[in-house]
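Q: What would this chain look like folded?
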Amino acid sequence: MTFIQFIKTGIRYVCAMLLGVMVSAVLFLPTIGALTNGPRGSLSFKDLLDFSFVGNMLSVIPKYSYGAHSDLGFAALFCGGLAIVLALSVFFNKQIKVKVKIVLGVFLFGILLCLYWHPLYLVFSLFKFVGSYNYRYSFLVEFFILFLAAYNCVYAKEKNNIVKTGVVAIVFSILNIVLTRHYTHQEKIYACLTVAMIIVLTALYISSQLITKQKTKQLLLVVLLIVGSIDLGINSSLLANSLCMNDLEYTSYRKNQEKIIRNIQNDDQSNYRITQTSNRVMYEGNLTANYDEPLSYRYMSTSGYTSSPDGTQLEFLNKCGYPTYADCLTVTNTSMLGIDSLLGVKYVLTSENYTGLVKKNNTKLNGKYTYTNPYYMPLAFTCNNFDAIKNEEGYLNPFDYQNLLFKQLFNTSKDIYKPVKYAVTKKDDSYTEINLNTSNCKNMVYYGFIPWTSESESYVYNGKDVITKYACWLSPTVFHIETDSSKTKLRVESADSNFNYDNAYFYALDLNVLDECAKTALENEVNISMKNGSIDTTVNAEDEDSYLYLSVPVDDCWDVLVNNEKAEVKSFGNCLYAIKLHSGTNKITMRYHTKHQKLGIGLTAGAILFIIISAVYRKKYCKEN
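A: My prediction, written as C-alpha cells:
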C-alpha cells in the first residue's frame, strides 16, 4: 500500500465513522441533550494531566480466572482457557513475521493501557468519573484476545509451534497460581480449577493438531469443543450465581408491591405522589440505594434514580433536607412531612409509626403499611403575589428553608418548623446522649440533623431502636424522631468524634400550621389532566397577580402556553413551575419535547438515504465496468 492509498483509506474510514454516528443521531443527540442538562453534564478534561496508573497491569493474570469480577486496577478478562494460551503463543510462533508480532504486541500493550493508565482510562470512561462497573469497555480487550488466538491458529501448522503452545500454557498457569497467593481461599480454588482446565484444553488442542488419523483427529476436536463449552459454562455459571437474586423473594416482593400500588390507584384516581421508607433491598441501618421502584411500579414519587437526573431537582430536594449522593441519587428513606405535603405526597408506605399520618388499613405487605397524609396538597393550586418571592432569602438549614417556602407560597408569617431545645451529654468519644424537650408531641412531628465533618460508622438511636446509620454513604441528613412523651433521649454511637453538636438542628413540625396551609391549597385546587408528555387545565383568575403553582419541575423541554400564547413562567424554589395567570379564563397547555429529537431524526434519515443512494450507485457502476 502506497502512502496515497493509505491516506485515501484513512479518509474513507473516518467518513464511515461519521456516517455511523449520523445513523445513530436519532438516539445519540437526545441522549447528549439529556446528559448536558444534569449535574453530570460536564467533562473532566483536566484529569487527563494525571499520568498515574490505576493498578498493576500484571493483575490481569490472576484475574484471568473463573468467577472473577473486575474492580478498578484489577481487570477480569476471562474469555476461555484455550483463548489466552493461543493468544500469547502468537509471539512465539516462528511462522508469523517479526514486524507483525511487534504491531500486535504494541496494540495489546496499548489496549491494556486503556484499562490501567489513567488518561486512557478516562478517555474510555467518556471523560467522566466512574464509581462502579469501571471496565464496561473491557470486552474490547477480550475481542482482541480472541482475535490473537484465531490469528495464531491460522499459522500454527508446524509441530514446533504447536509444542510451544504447551510451554506457554504451563508458564501462564504457574504465574496465575503464584500471583493469587494473596487472594482469598475461594479465589485460590477457582484459580486452581482454571489452571487445571487450561492444561486439559491445551493437551486436547496439541493432540488434535499432532495426530494424523482423521477419525481420531475429528473425535478429539469434538471433545475439545465440549470441554471448551464446559470451560465457558463454568465461568458464566459462577458469574450468574454471584449476580443473581433470590427468585422466590423477588417474585413475592413484586406481587405484594404491585398489590399495594394497585389498591391505592384503584381507590384514588386523582393526581398525587407516593413515597416509602423501605424497598426490596435494604442495607444495615435502614439505608438503601434502590430508589427506582416508582419507575418499576408506575407511580409518581419524590424519589428516583437515573444516570443523568435534572440538577435543579437534586438541588431543591437537597436544600429541603433530602441529600444528594454521586450527583444522581436523592436519599428519601424517611418522610419529611412538610416538604412531602407541598410536593403532593398523599400516601406513605412505611413500617414505622409516624405522627401525623393516618393508617389506611391494617394490611401489611412487604413489611409496610399504607398511610394517608391528611396534609397532602394538590399538585396544582393558585396563589397570589408571586413577584415578591425571593427563593434563597433567609435560607440557613433544611427547616428554615422549608419555612421560607411556605411563607412565600401561602403569604403567612407562621413557621411550620419550630426549633426544639436540646441538651448534649458526651459520655465518651464514641457515645453521646441528646435530650430533647418534646412536650408538644401530640401536635408536633420531630426531626433532627447533626452536621458531620467526615464520614464514619455512626448510628442514631431513639431509646433501644436504631433510627438510622448516619454520617456515611447513603445516609440521610435529616432523620425522623417518633415520640409519645414529653422528654426524648437520643443516643449517637460513632467511631470518631466527627459531629458538630453545637450546630445541631432539632425542629418540630407544627401540624396545626401545616393543616392551615393544606386547607388553603385545597380551597384553591386546580384540576389538571396529566398524560405522558402533556398537561392541560383551565383556570379562572380574578386578578392579574395570580399564579398557578404546579408541582412539576421546570425544564426547558416543556412548551408552556396560556390561551395559545407563550406563558410567563417563574420557578418556585428554583425548581417548580409558577405560571402567570391573566384576569379571566386561562387555558393552559404544556407539551414536552425531546431535546435535539428533530435534528437527530433529520441526520439519521439523511444518513440512511445517503447509504441507499451510494449502494445503488456502486451497484450500477460495477455493472458498467
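The radius of gyration is 32 Å.
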